[in-house]
Design goal:
Blueprint lengths: L1 H17 L2 H68 L2 H28 L4 H29 L3 H88 L6
Helix pairs in contact: 2-3, 2-4, 2-5, 3-4, 4-5
Keywords: Membrane, Transmembrane, Transmembrane helix
InterPro entries: HlyB_4HB_MCP
Pfam families: 4HB_MCP_1
Length: about 250
């Protein structure tokens, strides 16, 4: 019996608490806090997705384009130096040009190793990369043969080798250009996806803010009523007491 009365008293106290102004204030501010946290978490999620897209675009495409550009430049400079030696036939200038060729070969090798090991991001790109990978050793071997012929003073033999290296170099250059275009297209798609995601996040954020304003306005009205109604009753009672009407 005592337990039953205790339960009734507890339920009565809980019912009374839910009718208090303090409880209503807690409910109103709790709803506002939950909404603020929701908006903040959504904003953090959106920024995280955009950051992820930007990092992926940089690591998968921008760095790849940079490496491929170095490879393309090295190919062109090597062929340029070979032609300079062929035209000048000057031993002093030849030594300088050969040194430049070796430097460009090192740059080409480093750029290709970095790209081939870490930057390929699709099957189509891998297919193009294999064409480049098959052509580069041939290009290097022909270049070394040309340099050896020049060092031996065999300019006529070097000229014949230069004519043979052209198709190999052109095939590698065309594959590199195709790979660059592919990476540019992939980067463009990343940019479009990021823009689309930004618009979606923006509109959802605007909707959440609008909903937040409505909730805040509703909470304000709710609190005004919760406070003003008891206050009005208290004022009425005070007026009745002041006028001497004490029967209620």
């Amino acid at each position: 019996m005592t337990t039953g009365w205790a339960r009734i008293i507890e339920e009565s106290d809980m019912s009374s608490f839910t009718q208090t102004i303090k409880f209503k204030i807690v409910i109103a501010f709790g709803a506002c806090v939950i909404l603020m946290v929701t908006i903040g978490l959504f904003g953090a999620f959106g920024l995280s997705k955009l950051n992820s897209n930007m990092n992926e675009a940089y690591s998968s495409n921008t760095v790849a384009i940079s490496d491929l550009s170095d490879i393309r430049a090295a190919l062109l400079f090597i062929r340029l130096q070979v032609r300079r030696i062929q035209i000048d036939r000057n031993p002093a200038k030849m030594a300088e040009a050969v040194e430049a060729i070796h430097s460009d070969q090192d740059r080409l090798s480093k750029a290709w190793d970095h790209y081939h090991q870490t930057e390929i991001s699709s099957d189509k790109e891998r297919e193009i990369a294999e064409r480049i990978n098959n052509g580069l050793p041939q290009f290097k071997a022909r270049t070394d043969e040309i340099v050896a012929a020049f060092n031996a003073g065999n300019y006529d033999g070097a000229t014949q080798l230069i004519d043979k290296i052209g198709p190999v170099a052109d095939a590698v250059k065309d594959a590199v250009n195709q790979d660059v275009r592919l990476n540019i297209e992939q980067a463009r798609k990343f940019a479009q996806d990021s823009e689309s995601m930004f618009r979606t996040i923006l509109w959802i954020a605007v909707a959440l803010i609008g909903f937040g304003v409505m909730v805040a306005a509703g909470a304000s009205l709710y609190l005004l009523r919760a406070i003003s109604n008891p206050l009005k009753k208290a004022v009425d009672v005070a007026n009745q007491i002041a006028s001497g009407r004490l029967e209620n």
